[in-house]
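Review form for a predicted model. The reviewer records the input and the model, then writes brief findings.
Reviewer: anonymous (R2)
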Amino acid sequence: MDIQRKFKKLNDAVIDRQRNPATAQNRIELSRMLSEIIEFHSLVKQYTNRFSTLYNTIIFLMFGLSSIILCANLFGINTAIALHNTADAVRAIVFIPLVTVYVTFPCHFGHLVTMSAETIDESINQCCWEEFPVRVQKMQAIMMIMSQRPVYIQGVMNTKCSRESFQKIVKLAFSYFSMMRSIDG
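Model under review:
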C-alpha cells in the first residue's frame, strides 16, 4: 500500500471518528496508522542516506567522467568530420547516446526518489491533522518536522542525482567542447 492511500485511510478514519463517539480502540487505531506512516517515511530517508553514503564517490566520479567522455566524443566528432574520417565520426556519434543513458538513469531515478518524498510531504501537510486526537497530533507534528528536510540521492560535494544535474553535466561537457574547439582553432 502506498503512502498516499495510507494518508487517505487515516483521514477517513478521523472523519469516521467524528461521526462516531471516540473510543479507546479508535484512538489506538489512529495512532497505529500514523505510526506506520512515520515508520515508512523514516525508512525512505534511511534508505536514501545509506544509498548515498555507499555510492557517493561512485556517483561523483560517474558524473565527472561522463562530462569528460561527452566532451571528448564531441571533440572526436568535430575532428573526424574535419579530417573527413566518416568511420570515426560514426563511432563517436553512436557512443554519445550510450554515455547519455549512463548518466540519465541515476539522475532520473534520483529525481523520482525526490519527487516521491515530496509527495509524502504534501500528503502530510494535506492531512486533516487538526481533527486528530491530541496524542496523534503530536505524532503528526513530529512527522511534519521530519518531512521538512528534502530527500536526495547524492554524491561527494553535494552532487545530487536529479534532472538538473543531468542538464549541468551536458552543459559542462558542451562548455569543455567549446573551449577545446576554440583552442584547436
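Findings: Strands lie at 154-155, 159-160.
Further findings: The mean pLDDT is 78.
Recommendation: see findings above.
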